[in-house]
Amino acid sequence: GDGAREPLGLFTASDAGIGTSRDVNVGSTTTFTADGLIAAQGALKDAYDANARWLFHKDAITLIRKLKDGNQQYIWQPGLALGVQNQILGKPYITGDNVPHTFSSALYGGMYGDFSYYWIADSVNMSVQRLTELYALTNQIGLLFRDMACDGMPVLAEAFVRIKLSA
Fold first, then answer.
1. Model's pTM, two decimal places?
2. Are the C-beta atoms of 167 and 29 separated by less than 8 Å?
3. Bridge partners for 127 per DSSP
4. Of 74, 92, 100, whose CA–CA distance to 165 is shortest?
């Protein structure tokens, strides 16, 4: 979202969240490059690297799995041991259906960062109405929640690096 009556998303460039200074071009107008992903990983400050993860759409993972480094070794590493996540450049990744996946010039294609700095806040000013008569025939009690509000936004821009395809 853009932050106007909805949570501020990770892929919305905003000085209130993550500004364009945290964008890294990956070196191609239509796909990712191994060098570009290495540059994105290197752009994150050391303080956030321990908890950092990649965030991509599954379509991006398909492209990244084909990338090789200078020694013709795939940069994507499968988690072969039980409980070990798949990795890109030594860091785990997560996928999401809402991550941008139109791979063309000047668009976002993923992210690297410490997602503990994306905060979600739920409103504590809500009311609950107990609906005893509505469900009396089935011996159930219904609850109706009102005025429940939720918001979210990145709270520290330097904990994130957005991956952008080159213009």
1. 0.77
2. yes
3. 146
4. 100
pLDDT band at 94 (very low <50, low <70, confident <90, very high): very high
The token pair that represents 52 in the structure block: 């950092």
> For residue 84, what are the contacts with CB-CB under 8 A and spacing of at least 6?
none
φ/ψ of residue 57, rounded to 5: -85, 155
Chain segment 57-92, per-residue pLDDT in tens: 999 999 888 888 788 888 777 766 667 788 888 899
Distance CA 50, CA 67 (A): 24
Closest to 53 (Cα-Cα) out of 81, 21, 6, 86: 86
* 109: DSSP letter: E
User: How far apart are alpha carbons 66 and 9 in whole angstroms?
Assistant: 28
